Amino acid sequence: MMESAEQIRRATINDIGGILELIRPLEQQGILVRRSREQLEMEIDKFTIIQRDNTTIACAALYPFPEEKIGEMACVAVHPDYRSSSRGEVLLERIAAQAKQSGLSKLFVLTTRSIHWFQERGFTPVDIDLLPESKKQLYNYQRKSKVLMADLG
Fold first, then answer.
1. Which parts form a coiled-coil structure per UniProt (predicted)?
2. Mean pLDDT confidence for 104-113
3. Which region, left, alpha or beta, applies to residue 3 given φ > 0 means left and ψ of -120 to 50 means alpha?
4. pTM for the complete prediction?
5. CB half-sphere exposure, 73, CA atoms < 13 A
6. Which pLDDT does position 75 carry in this prediction?
7. Rounded to an integer, what is the distance from CA 99 to the centroid of its chain?
8. Which of 40, 91, 131, 137 could form a disulfide linkage to 60, CB 3.0–4.6 angstroms apart?
9. How far apart are alpha carbons 141 and 143 in whole angstroms?
10. Contacts of 38 (CB under 8 A, 6+ apart)
11. Tens of pLDDT along 111-147?
């Protein structure tokens, strides 16, 4: 449950420092794919954040594949102090709503760690072949990420 001192919103260029602070430890542990500051700057409009007292405590990005009517929820991170709360659910709901508003009918994630969390929220494991073609070409087999997909119906 989000608290009144928190807000969920689309990220802006001013949020890059906070997002980097949140995701760097997860990148260093190999949980998230590494993103450069430049990449974040170019993709900032795809990010949604939860902020508390001017600190970014959670983030996620939506990468749409409009031709296939599929979206990828990526770079999902919640600050360790807030992981036992529902911040992840709040982000998932917001990203799913954005995807539906964009005319997408499915949402997928690539994950090495949070498989059960996503399955509990309606995602099912699918074959890599179900990914959009451009994403399939970028799939990193060394990470051994599981592909999970959900209908936005």
1. none
2. 94
3. beta
4. 0.91
5. 33
6. 96
7. 12
8. 91
9. 5
10. none
11. 988 899 999 999 999 999 999 988 888 777 777 889 9
Confidence band, pLDDT 50/70/90 cuts, at residue 94? very high
Please name the residue that has the structure tokens 């911040």.
87
Sequence ranges of the domains in the chain? 6-151
Average pLDDT, the chain: 92
User: What kind of fold does domain 6-151 have according to CATH?
Assistant: Aminopeptidase (3.40.630)
Which of 86, 91, 65 lies closest to 76, judged by CA? Answer: 91
DSSP letters for 44-68:
GGGEEEEEETTEEEEEEEEEEEGGG
What pLDDT does 2 receive?
A: 53
Give every strand in the sheet of 124-126, ordered side by side: 6-10, 47-52, 55-65, 70-78, 106-111, 146-151, 124-126
Give the model's pLDDT for residue 120: 96
Instruction: Tell me the C-alpha distance between 10 and 19, whole Å.
Output: 12
